[in-house]
Design brief:
The chain is α/β, with parallel strands linked by helices. It folds into two domains: about 200 residues, Rossmann fold (3-Layer(aba) Sandwich), CATH 3.40.50; about 140 residues, CDP-glycerol glycerophosphotransferase, C-terminal domain (Rossmann fold), CATH 3.40.50.12580. Helix content is about 40%, strand content about 15%.
Length: about 375
Amino acid sequence: MSFFLQGHHKSFKKKYFKEHYSDTKKLILFFVPSGTDRINGGILSICTIYNIVKKLKDIHGCDVVASFLPGKSETDYKYRKFSNEMIIFTFKEIERYFDHLDFAEIHIPDVMIAAFNKGNKRMVPFFRWTENIKDIKINLLNQNDLFMPPIEKIDNVKKMFPNTTMTMAHKRYATLEKRNYYGVPLHLFSAWLSPTPYNRKVFSEKENLVIYSPDKIQWVPNSSMLTKEEIVSNLKKKLPHYTFVEIKNMKYDTYKDYASRAKFVITFGEGLDGYLIETIFSGGISFAVYNEIFFTEDFKNLPTLYTSFDEMNEKIADDIKHYDNPETFKEYQDKLDIIVNKLYSFNMLENNIKQYYLHNFDFK
C-alpha cells in the first residue's frame, strides 16, 4: 500500500474514533479476517452480527468496534466487495485508542481461536492490552463446527478468560451435547448473510442459468474421488442450453444478481451454506450433498440433497430437467422456501442476539 493511502486510512480512522469512541469505557470488539478484498459466508455473517450488536447499545451499554488480529498489516479499513458499515482498525490502533477500558467483550471467529495462546509471539500485544482491562468476556464465534480447533485450544482460552461463551451459526449443532462438549454457555446466532434484501424472481423471470460455489468438494467430509470440475463438465454435456457460472472473484452484489437470475445453484461446500440458502431466498432451487453436521431434519430426504457427490453426478442432470418447468419448479421451490424461512430470517437473528445480551442463553 502507498504511503498516501496509509496516511489517508490512518487519518480517517483517527477522525472516526473521535466522533464515535472518544468516551468509550465499555467495548465490544470483533476480530475479523484480514484481506479486505475477500468475501465469504463467515465475513458476511460477522458483518451482519456486528451491525445488529451496534443497534443494541441500549441493552449492553457498549460501543462496538472491529479489528484485525495483532501483526496483521493494514490493507484497508473496509470490506469493499459488499455494502457494509463496518470500519476495521488495526490492533495497534485498538491498543492506542482504547487503553482505559472498564469492560471488553471480545468475539473471536472459529478459525482464529488457536492463535489465542500465550506462546504465540504475535499475540503478545493482545495479552498486554487485556491486562489493563478490569473485566473481560470472550465469545467464540462458531460459524462452522468443522473449523473449530481441538478442544484443548478452547480449554486454553477458558483458563485465561473464565467468562467465555460460544455462539453457533447453525441450529444443527446448537445443542446440549455441544454445550457439554465445549464446556461453556452456548447460544444460537442463526445464520443470516445479506445486509440488503434479496431480489426474488419467479420461474418466468429466471434464465437458463446454473451457478455453483467455488469450493473444492475434497474440503468437506466426502468419500468420493470425483472433482467439482468433472461434475460440472458432465452437466454441460447433458444441458447444452444452460449457462454455468462459478461464483468466484466477484462482488457480493454481482453474485446476488446471478442468484436472482439463476434457476438452480449447486454448492460443493458443506451444504447448508449461503449459496444454498440465498438462492432459495432469491426464488431458485438448490442442489447439495446432505451433511449431517449442518443440515437439520427438515432437509432430510429432499430430492435435491444427495447422499454423496457420486449420486449427485449420476442424478443431477435429470433432476434439473425435471424441475425445468413452471409447475414442478414452483411446487418444489415453495417447499424449500418454507423450510429456510422457518430456520433463517433477519428478525430471528436480531432476536437471538438480543436474547444473548439479555443473558437468556439457549444452554447456560
